[in-house]
Design brief:
The chain has about 220 residues and is α+β, with helices and mostly antiparallel strands. The chain folds into 2 domains: about 5-140, no CATH class; about 150-215, no CATH class. It has 6 helices and 8 strands, in the order E-E-E-H-E-E-E-H-E-E-H-H-H-H. Strands 1, 2, 3, 4, 5, 6, 7 and 8 form an 8-stranded mixed β-sheet that branches. This is HK97 family phage prohead protease. One of its GO terms (biological process) is proteolysis. Keywords: Hydrolase, Protease, Viral release from host cell.
Length: about 220
C-alpha cells in the first residue's frame, strides 16, 4: 500500500505552555503540487474507524514513525478541511519541547497528512486527481514556512554548519525528508565514506542542499 503526503503551511494561532495546539491538517478544494485535491467527506470513514478503536492518529515529527511527539485530542471535518487539535508531550518528550519552541517562533509552521487512497477520480483534461476517500495514517508537524524568503534565512546558518555527510543527512531529515529519501539524496556522494569530508566533495553536497532548499517561483 502506497503512503502519500500532503503538506501545507498553517498559522499557529496559539501553542500553549502545556503543548496544546490546533490547525488544519488538510484543506478541501486545494490542488497540491502532485495535482491532487481532497474532496469534502474524504476522511469521514477513516475518522469513524479511528474513533471506534478508541484513539486517533499520532502526532509525528517530520513523518518519522519512530518519533511520535504526542496524541491528537480531536479531529473533525469542517467546511474548510480536516481540523485537528493536538497535545505535544512537552513534559516527557524532548522532541515535543523542541517542536513547541519552533512552532511558537513560527520557524516550523506546517502540517502534513500521511494517507492511503481508497477512492479517487481523475480528470484527464486538467490532470487533477480528486481524493474521495482516504485512510488517514498520521498527521505530522513539518518544516514548511509560509514565506519562502524566510526559509532561506532560517536554514542558511544550519547549512553553513554542515561539516560531515552524517550532519547533511540529519539536516535533510529535519527539513522533512524520510531517512530513505535523505539517504537517496546524498547517495551520489557515497564515495566520501572513509575520506576527508571537508573537501570539494562535501562542498558539492552542501551546494546541492542549498539548491534543494531554495523556493521555486512561477513567472
Amino acid at each position: 500500500m502506497e503512503i502519500k503526503y500532503i503538506e501545507r503551511p498553517f498559522e499557529v494561532k496559539a501553542v500553549q505552555e502545556n503543548g496544546v495546539f490546533e490547525g488544519f491538517g488538510s484543506i478541501f478544494g486545494n490542488v497540491d503540487l502532485d495535482n491532487d485535491i481532497v474532496a469534502p467527506g474524504a476522511f469521514t470513514e477513516s475518522l469513524a474507524q479511528w474513533k471506534a478503536s478508541g484513539r486517533l492518529p499520532p502526532i509525528l515529527w517530520q513523518h518519522r514513525s519512530g518519533e511520535p511527539i504526542g496524541p491528537y485530542l480531536e479531529m473533525q471535518e469542517q467546511a474548510a478541511g480536516l481540523w485537528v487539535k493536538g497535545q505535544l508531550l512537552v513534559d516527557d518528550v524532548q522532541r515535543a519541547r523542541e517542536a513547541r519552541a519552533l512552532m511558537k517562533a513560527k520557524a516550523v509552521n506546517g502540517l502534513s497528512i500521511g494517507y492511503a487512497v481508497r477512492e479517487d477520480s481523475y480528470d484527464r483534461v486538467t490532470g487533477v486527481r480528486t481524493l474521495k476517500k482516504v485512510d488517514l495514517w498520521e498527521v505530522s508537524i513539518v518544516t514548511f514556512p509560509a514565506n519562502p524568503s524566510a526559509q532561506i534565512s532560517s536554514v542558511k546558518s544550519a547549512i553553513d554548519a554542515i561539516q560531515t555527510v552524517r550532519e547533511a543527512e540529519e539536516f535533510l531529515r529535519d527539513a522533512g525528508l524520510s531517512k530513505a529519501q535523505a539517504a537517496a539524496f546524498i547517495g551520489r556522494f557515497k564515495s566520501l565514506s572513509g575520506q576527508r569530508e571537508s573537501g570539494d566533495e562535501l562542498g558539492d553536497l552542501v551546494a546541492s542542499i542549498v539548491k534543494f532548499t531554495e523556493p521555486t517561483t512561477n513567472s
